């Protein structure tokens, strides 16, 4: 006798109105990764609040996402710095006022640039840790009452940089390691309240600002070094996001979903001239404290 029956399909995780009545609060929602995550949820019925630092970019992203579904409500919450918990509380209050609730949180605001250790100042390290790690903590702090009330779910946008030592990314690796630890501890502490917490760790995703700015080599060269032989797509990220917020993942918490085509397993970070490129960078003038 089979274990599943027809109700498995009708309760289903893959309906077109899967997230109808749900609201997602997204920091970094104007960036490529978080924007496509939000687009997927809105296409499947959710409403959304897009939080960002830059007004023009945040307004444009919200408008763009809203155009995906005729009755979608997508609000823009610009001029918010995730390092400031009070500005996040204001954003959460505005979201509840305008959209009624918050069910899902995507903590995606992040800062990144390439720098060798000798040219990475203490303040630069602190800035990235404050945006990525403290900002993630602040986001959940501000959303906590809504998450508790609605037995919500969290996705932290993480990375794979801290699974091993990645040069030029000391600050980001340290911050994202903290984000994974934060998510794990929240999964344990908030699980009894019915709140799930997971990380999504994208690898090299085509047509993202991060890949354009941070990766080395041509797209073909990058793809050749990835086990699945292609760059990721924004749709890969959308699918993973839908899964993690859907009932299909209702027993998944404290996990990291890596969406990278197997990339990190082969230490694939484009530093083909290692260690020559690092030694050159460390020795360049302009050492910073
Ligand atoms: N290389 C080395 N140091 C850098 C740097 C770079 N490319 N960019 C910034 N810094 C340093 C600054 O020099 C400063 O340190 P200092 O005081 O010792 O000089 C420190 O970082 C803070 O810089 P500031 O511009 O005041 O920071 P901020 O808090 O406004 O923003 C970032 C920091 C990381 C967000 C900024 O670099 C940025 O806007 N990046 C682009 C957006 C982004 O990263 N998006 C993520 C996509 S993956």
From TrEMBL:
Keywords: NADP, Oxidoreductase. One of its GO terms (molecular function) is 2,4-dienoyl-CoA reductase (NADPH) activity. It holds the Pfam family adh_short_C2. InterPro entries: DECR2-like, NAD(P)-bd_dom_sf, SDR_fam. It catalyses: a (2E,4Z)-dienoyl-CoA + NADPH + H(+) = a 4,5-saturated-(3E)-enoyl-CoA + NADP(+); a (2E,4E)-dienoyl-CoA + NADPH + H(+) = a 4,5-saturated-(3E)-enoyl-CoA + NADP(+). Gene3D superfamilies: NAD(P)-binding Rossmann-like Domain (3.40.50.720). GO terms for cellular component: peroxisomal matrix. Its EC number is 1.3.1.124. One of its GO terms (biological process) is ascospore formation. It is an enzyme of class 1 (oxidoreductase). This is 2,4-dienoyl-CoA reductase [(3E)-enoyl-CoA-producing]. It comes from Spathaspora passalidarum (strain NRRL Y-27907 / 11-Y1).
């Amino acid at each position: 006798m089979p274990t599943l029956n027809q109700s498995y399909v009708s309760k289903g995780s893959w309906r077109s109105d899967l997230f109808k009545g749900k609201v997602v609060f997204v920091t970094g929602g104007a960036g490529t990764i978080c924007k496509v995550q939000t687009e997927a949820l809105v296409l499947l019925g959710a409403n959304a609040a897009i939080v960002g630092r830059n007004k023009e970019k945040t307004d444009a992203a919200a408008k763009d996402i809203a155009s995906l579904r005729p009755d979608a409500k997508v609000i823009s919450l610009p001029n918010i710095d995730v390092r400031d918990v009070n500005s996040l509380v204001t954003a959460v209050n505005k979201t509840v006022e305008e959209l009624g609730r918050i069910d899902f949180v995507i903590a995606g605001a992040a800062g990144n640039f390439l720098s060798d250790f000798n040219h990475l100042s203490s303040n630069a390290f602190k800035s990235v840790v404050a945006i990525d790690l403290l900002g993630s903590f602040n986001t959940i702090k501000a959303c906590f009452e809504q998450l508790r009330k609605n037995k919500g779910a969290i996705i932290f946008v993480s990375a794979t940089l801290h699974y091993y030592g990645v040069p030029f990314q000391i600050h980001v690796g340290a911050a994202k390691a903290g984000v994974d630890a934060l998510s794990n501890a929240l999964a344990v502490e908030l699980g009894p309240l019915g709140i799930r917490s997971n990380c999504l760790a994208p690898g090299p995703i085509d047509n993202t600002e991060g890949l354009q700015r941070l990766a080395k080599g041509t797209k073909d060269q990058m793809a050749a070094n990835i086990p699945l032989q292609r760059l990721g797509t924004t749709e890969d990220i959308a699918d993973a996001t839908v899964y993690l917020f859907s009932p299909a993942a209702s027993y998944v918490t404290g996990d990291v979903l890596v969406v990278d085509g197997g990339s990190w397993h082969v230490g694939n970070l484009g530093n083909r001239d290692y260690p020559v490129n690092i030694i050159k960078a460390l020795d360049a003038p302009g050492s910073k404290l």
